[in-house]
Amino acid sequence: MEPLTNKKKVLEQKPLSLAERMYLPAIAKGLSVTISHLFKKEATIRYPEQQREFSTNFRGMHSLKRDEEGRERCTACGLCALSCPAEAITMIAGERKQEEKHLYREEKYASVYEINMLRCIFCGLCEEACPKEAIYLDGPIVPADYLRKDFIYGKDKLVEQPLNKNK
Amino acid sequence: MEIAFVIEKFILVVIIFAISLLIAMYSTYAERKVAAFLQDRLGPDRAGPFGILQPLADGVKMFMKEEIVPANSNKWLFMVGPGLAMLTACIGTAVIPWGSEITIGGKVVPLQVTDINVGILYIFGVVSLGVYGVMIGGWASNNKYSLLSAIRAASQNISYEIAMGLSIIALLLVTNTMSLKEIVEQQHGWHWNVLYQPLGFIIFMVCAFAETNRAPFDLPECETELIGGYHTEYSSMKLGFYLFAEYINMFVSSAVMATLYFGGYNYPGMDWVLANTGAVIGPLIGTAVFFAKIFAFIFFFMWVRWTIPRFRYDQLMHLGWKGLIPLAIANIIITGVVIAVIEKF
After folding, report:
1. For residue A48, what is the nearest residue in chain B, using CA coordinates?
2. ipTM, 2 dp
3. Interface A-B: count of C-beta contacts within 8 A
4. Which residue of chain A comes nearest to B35, CA vs CA?
């Protein structure tokens, strides 16, 4: 068959020359290669102390957003749970009371909002589905833990901190 | 007088034993660090500053592990194996001259446990005994991989001992003595034997690599083929002994190479230093130089390990029998002829 590229290279096996059979020149060459690495900068990042910068489109832990006045954006429409291919999101909707107006933006809000981080595949479909721009996967890596129940993150871990805590 | 002599030697033995164990301990750490640096990594750095406590952590781990003795093993030999490996690794240090004499309170203390007049033969015998620990352990495990590995170790050591012995014969032609102390004294200043016996040194070094089962001759413990090698069935501190014995062997053979070929505690300009520093500090500087040479060799052992891939078994035998032994014999003949010619004229 006609070769499709000109990259093909026929290797011919020649008997080893004396220098090759002595191994020593090749060994010296190899040693010089490895010793040069002694002086190179190591590629290691000491993880817990140092962290590699995430790329801008990195999808990490979810956060439930607040609006400009510090009210939770989520209205518990359930679209994120519906869109989730891993079925990691569960929520229970609640009705906003009159005195809670400063806490929730809409009349309906998520009284319970849980994401099972062991199920979540960090695909980002929930943030695409959300009509209220309430959920984003803009956090860090989800930390390790010992028990399965500790991976179910509730609103205490997911809702982002208020802009001004004194208010 | 007699009791003072015993105490002096006892202290020396304890010091040397402690030092060789300490160096072996930190060789495991150095090995991992060197490996890491040669591969652009950091190596262990969590236990203590720069990971300096890593060997202790490893030791504790080894002691804490469950001790498993296989059901169909030969229990007695299974226990003897690692002990023998450790013993033969340690006793080689007895005849190595660690330094010249130091004078404490009018008493001359040689920094050598014993200066027997067949020092080289003793070292050689001890090194050859080392393979018994490996063989007994591999045999007693009653495991075919361990046995295969033990067979490899035995045949490898036997093959390379011949070339090693032959390279030493050429050295003996030059030195005219087998006492390690005298050999070192002859290499005063910069008259190191490696300048007179470069080929002999290379042969000896290659054989030392093979005798200590270090890469590229670490066939007896090649992980991929023999699932660990002769110590597959070992666990806990028995495994630790085998691994430890390898590092002590490395230390001893580095010391022997430094003694025989690189002048031991001699260094250029030593007369001036000796004249200016006195009878205690001067010889101790020589000892420090000797240890620096040993560390350089140990580093070289590690450097080679992380550079050269493992030999195939047939290549190993080919190199040993068809390469090194003829070369060593040629070296003897050339050395003999040159000495004869020099003495004649």
Report:
1. B46
2. 0.73
3. 37
4. A38
By Cβ distance, the residue of B38, B42, B45 closest to A37 is B38
pLDDT in tens, chain B (345 residues): 688 888 888 888 898 889 888 888 888 888 888 888 888 888 888 888 888 888 888 889 888 888 888 888 888 888 888 888 888 888 888 888 888 777 777 777 777 778 788 888 888 888 888 888 888 888 888 888 888 888 888 888 888 888 888 888 888 888 888 888 888 888 887 888 888 888 888 889 888 888 888 878 877 777 667 777 788 888 888 888 888 888 888 898 898 888 888 888 888 877 787 778 777 788 888 888 889 999 999 999 888 888 888 888 888 888 888 888 998 999 999 998 998 898 887
B144, amino acid identity: K
If 0-12 CB within 10 Å is exposed, 13-18 middle and 19+ buried, where does residue B9 land?
Answer: middle
Helix axes B198-211, B325-344, angle to 10 degrees: 150
CB-based contact B154:B135 (threshold 8 Å)? yes
Instruction: Give me the sheet containing A152-153, strands edge to edge.
Output: A89-95, A108-116, A152-153
Question: Who among B37, B307, B319 is closest to A30 (CB)?
Answer: B307
* Cβ-based interface (< 8 Å): residues of B facing A: 36-42, 45, 202, 303-304, 306-308, 319
From chain A, pick out residues whose CB is under 8 angstroms from the CB of B37.
37-38, 42
DSSP code of A66?
A: B
| Chain B nearest CA to A65, separation (Å) | 38
Say if pTM beats, i.e. exceeds, 0.90: no
**A42 and B36: CB-CB below 8 Å?**
yes
